[in-house]
Design a protein that fits this description.
This protein is mostly beta strands. The protein is built from four helices and 14 strands. It is globular, with a radius of gyration of 18 Å.
Length: 309
Amino acid sequence: MTSRTMTKTKASLTLIAATIGCSGAVASAQDFEAFTLGTSVNGQSGWTVEDSFGNSGELFDEAIVDDGGNQVWRISNAYTSTSYSNQPFSSSSPQIAGETGAQLFNDYGSDHTSPNTPPLSSGAATTKFFYGSWDFKSATGAAQNNLSLTVSPSGKQSTLRMSYLSMIDTGSGFDLLFYDTNNTTFVPTTVATGLNYTDWHNIEMLVEFVDGEGTGNTGNDIVTIKVDNSVVHTGTTWESYYAAVADGGIPTSAERAVDSLLFRMAGTQDAGNSGEGFYIDNVTVSNIPAPTGVALLGLGGLGLLRRRR
């Protein structure tokens, strides 16, 4: 399949890796062509829609479908849930990302036998950078009631997210909201409005985990959001929230690492959208150990990086 953005995304990642002299950080976009048509993404190419024990109990309205000769992943809000670990998770990035000392936490811990309270870690961070990208459009080309989807960098099959971007059908297009934190307060920022239903749109999220929590109440990690190849927001992770609230027995933000994208259906349920919803394609999860300047400027910072060198 020759895709709208798959070639662009892979080229950008490869160029970054070559420019900064890194290897093993680039993962190809998953275009779902190798997935089985008409089935859930669960268990295919590293994707899961179940917890680490293989338990789901949820009947999410999602499947691989054909979009005019192009296989894509479809998901709707015909069924929603307040759960986390058994929601749809992408495959894992090549490396675990987080601050020094950060670890992945999910419901099985290091012994893989039973839930732990507090949870045990199952992998340590080896890089400070996480990159996620995906394409999306409406499955119907028109407005759909109450349709929304949130996407977060997370530990795979975990309840602990480190960032949050919401995709909302407003009735006149898609709005995108990014949520920063100020201690226990979640601060939304609208980063895009009125994205049309018929075109494919691309979202990129580059996270740089910076050791420590900085000054103030917002944290010092850097999250850069790009929409359709334009930087629309530079914010932070949820480290200030986790620093203020001991969650699940894990005391500090520095202990939370990520290796996956969580696509979470938890908003208003609308059975009328069954078989419809979002089309998702070209999902990339990767690591880009680039200098801070690249994270601040988005992926477009490469030209400046070359000039400095």
